[in-house]
Amino acid sequence: MFIPKFLTLTLSIEPFLRNEEMKQFISLLLLFSILIEASHAGKPNKERYTLIKENFSETESINFKGLQNHIGHQFKDETLLQEALYPLLPKALKKEEEKYNHLEFLGDAVLGTTIREYLVKRFADQERSFLVKAYELLTRNKTLTEAYLKQLSIEEYLPFPENKKCEYCNVIEALIGAIHLDDAEKGYRNAKKFVMNILNDHVIQEKISIIATEKSIALGINLLPEIKKHLAEVSKNQPIEKINPKSFLGEVLLKTWSAAPTYTLSLALNNEGDPAVEARISGIQIGKNQIKGIGYTAKEAEENVARNAINFICQEVVFPPLHPIFSKTYIAFLNGWSTTKKIPGLKITDTLKIDPTIFRYQAILNDGFLIKGEGNTKRLAKEEASKQAYHHLADADSSVDNGSRNYRTLLREWFDRNPNSIFNFEEHIIQPDTLYTTQIIINQTLISEKKGAGKAVDIRETACRDALIYLIQQQEIREKEIESRKMAGKPVDKIIPDSKTAPIASIIKADTSQPSTSSKTTPSSTPKKKQIKKSNKAKKETASLNTEKGSVKKKKA
After folding, report:
1. pTM here?
2. CATH of the domain at 167
């Protein structure tokens, strides 16, 4: 119990006091301190976050279709959804505040039951004290707020409200309550799915790692019994390397949670700096867009992210990672990407510039003087060369007008008068390089232009590669801008390294008797150098966390 310092001092001298009024005063102070503590406990960690107008829609109505797709639940009664969004809606769209409070009250209970059930199943071999600590970390308001900001963030489907701040943790609980009430038969199951979408394995492993660090233990995270069973069923009749990972993951999540994962595609750079397709996956337990996979087609990228997602759930390399090799041209890659993403107004235009052929006649006279003439035709080139030769040999003034006769005739006459002279022109044809230009235009904006005198396909390849890199840069700028607005005002916490977990090699071989106790590394699409940096960073953070045990223990929900 919290007791102010001045009260502690008063209590320490209380035995020396005999005045009854003083004793009554001290009792009142004690009662006052208890009331203060109770009021703090009643509203633990209720952070209010500033609402950013740019994050909201510019419309004046709720985008129910987009919102429900984003949440992952289609409401039978959209009024329940509207009631749950009370703090995020303008006055004209608000429902009764009391109904919002009721939904929050119910959602808090459903959340608690869901998390308790999950922990009992996944950590069946742990003591109650461990389960209590894990429960407290997962259901505290700060955790729910972080989950909202990272996994939910629904403002883009709502008009901007008059409220300037919001307690996101309460909104999550109200949404859980609304989903639970929306279906009399499947309400609890649907609410569980929503909870495990936002409090996924990434969040759970982070919080479990805190406990493991405090207790200085290597704590394994077991598979849920349902997933263990489905993994064994799906893989028992064929070798794992012959199974399509995307289909495999879909079957497992459908059987466990009745919800298949979703995929989103974007452009990225591979380890060699070549543009590639990056797939991100969202689903129950695996989080929203936190696991990535690289490929050079949409199919290849989605299969690779599914591999990584399965390995993440199992915390073992069930599907060996693949390292795709870039085997396409950038032209084909850009065309394929524009088809996949339906890029509007994409045009690849090629222009060809060919300069006229140059003819050259030249000769070296007996005195070493070089005679040279060039022109776009043989006649003009030879005439220019003849002019230079005649003026030099005849020692004539270059300004002398030769009348209507050309210099080739004059030169021939000079040789007739000087029969002992020997003089022959050499003919050369100079073929100029063809100049190619490729322009790539999107929505009437020139985003890439390359010129060169090499092969046309090489010029086009360079332009397409530059266009892809431009699209990647624009995509990163947009993502950073959205993320910075979304996370505005959020305190930055240290990253807790994932704890070691038990592998399931025996499960994949349909041996469900005893799980193995060795551990392996979860594959990642992150380059090796980045993995090393992350590993070193994790070691430093683990060391710093050991020195902060006391402060962590004092944190309450």
Report:
1. 0.67
2. 1.10.1520.10
